Fold this protein.
Amino acid sequence: MSVLVLVGTRKGLFLLESDDDRREWELAGPVLTGWSIFHAIADPRDGTIHAATNSEVYGATVHRSADRGETWARAEELGLPEDTGLTLEKTWHVEPGREGEDGRLWLGAAPGALFRTDDGGVSWAPVDGIVRHETRDRWHPGAGGMCCHSIALDPDEPHRIYVGISAAGVFGSEDGGETWTPANQGTAADFLPDPFPELGQCVHKLLVHPGRPERLWQQNHCGVYRSDDRGESWERLEANGLPSGFGFPLALDHREPDSAFVVPEESSENRVTPNGRLGVYRTRDGGSSWELLTDGLPQRAWGAVMREGFSSDRLDPPGIYLGTQSGSVFVSPDAGDTWVEAADQLPPILSVEAARS
Amino acid sequence: MTVVLLPSLLAAEAGGRNRFELEAETLGAALRELPVASLVLDERGDLRRLVNVYVDGVDARDRDGLATELAGNETIRLVAAIAGGRR
């Protein structure tokens, strides 16, 4: 067995491959040249690669490849209904359905849109419960557009799903995506007149822990949070040792629900890693404390890691993957203790995702 | 026959073909015939803002846009705009 890492960049998709040690990496690509790859995943159910692809000229779409990127097909149906007055702006995140949900995947997009496919990505249907949500007139776009960037499936409950939309906030569904309820209580929106509104928060990344699905984590424009009640309430965590509450990426350890990883940035006004270093911070106690991980990471850097530029795998110990706007991929094969640079001088990296191959 | 010429990214998306010969009464109908129609036209069927289309060397936006009538002997060239495009 080996590990395949899909590295989405502003200028195509690169593939990194290693054995299970995850210390020596071989680079291939780019493929999908000319496209910005906002996110790419290998579906664990069948290995098909799905990529959220965007072009300033040719629009937003989703490509898929069943042969590790040799050949590609493009979504045949993907768009927003005319009566909504909306048109598709960008595709942001592809989330495979659960084991047994053959052909089903979810797609997050801008402006504030969620799609579902049941035929493996040939045709994508808009999810009306989000696209026509009754609070939509209170949503507003963040700097990157009004992107639906996080889609988190409860691994145990097939009808429970969460999304994160900037800047609308977190929404949860208990009926497979038919209806959606805001889940932002206790999360701040310091940029609004009411700093704790029902919705309108600028969530940057949302994840559900696979081993304790009632536990959610989010990196927000205004803080790092954990929820232990499926998003009904949130506890703010960055005061416990993080240099900043601002940042985009978030990763989890599939074995340990109390562990999480973030890469803070100095502030929303100065979006670089704090203190002139590339710092990954890890908690192992649910966010009560954070430790700076440095072994193998550059100690002199003004980096930036995009919201999809950070992920973890399901090996033991889990690998943590980090791609920078400066074109480097760093991998920790031991849950953050040590890091190796797996690639450098790539175009600005937008996403990294690891899969078994 | 009307000839349609594609730039490199669209040709890659069309299975490597950069030249199509087809019959269509209007420019819009010709573009909808292409396997890359969804990259040239948005979900409303409008020409994407940064795609320029030249019909025998004349910008289609200076003619009748997608309603431009074709006699059947034109060469249509699709080009990515170099800057902000034209509306």
About this structure: The longest strand of chain B covers residues 75-80. Chain B touches chain A through 17 residues (CB under 8 Å). The two ends of chain B are 29 Å apart (CA to CA). Residues 27-33 of chain B form the longest helix (7 residues).
